[in-house]
Amino acid sequence: MIRLILAAIVFVSFAFTGIDKQPTVYSFKVEGIDGNSIDFSKFKGKKILIVNTASKCGYTKQYAELEELYKKYQDKLVVIGFPANNFGGQEPGTNAEIKEFCTGTYNVTFPMAAKISVKGDDMHPLYQWLTSKAKNGVLDAEIKWNFNKFLLNEKGELVAYFPSKITPLSEEITSKL
Length: 177
Known about the structure:
There is one protein chain. The protein is α+β, with helices and mostly antiparallel strands. The protein contains six helices and six strands; from the N terminus they run αβββαβαααββα. The strands form two sheets. Strands 4-3-5-6 form a four-stranded mixed β-sheet, with helices on one face. It has a two-stranded antiparallel sheet with strand order 1-2. The active site is at residue 57. Keywords: Oxidoreductase, Peroxidase. GO terms for molecular function: peroxidase activity.
């Protein structure tokens, strides 16, 4: 009986110390568009806006607002773009071509990741975490198109998801900054 009680105490203590918790956003490092590494742990203390992007989409003009948002709030917010070719072949380019488009057309200075998949069997692990309540502890989300946005607070906790039609400078987003 005493062994059973001790086993229960050990189990409960492991459960409450977080040993079985899923990784936080700060656990992720992703390849940058230049081949460098984007380490999310370096963004502790800032809000993070993660956006799946595409260069040939009706929402592509949101790059301009993402850059404006980044510049306006850069002391407390980092925007990270994730080019993805999951919807209608709207991001067919190489990383170099995507970077040239983003910097040449929209003067993008916020961090851009290397091209990834944001849905399907080859979904990037970060997007698996962002879209699964079982992993992020907050919400389930389905990426239905380009320019979906995920907002994380200064502690790296997911606080909101915004579909494509919610623009970066909308009150829905800026009120949370």
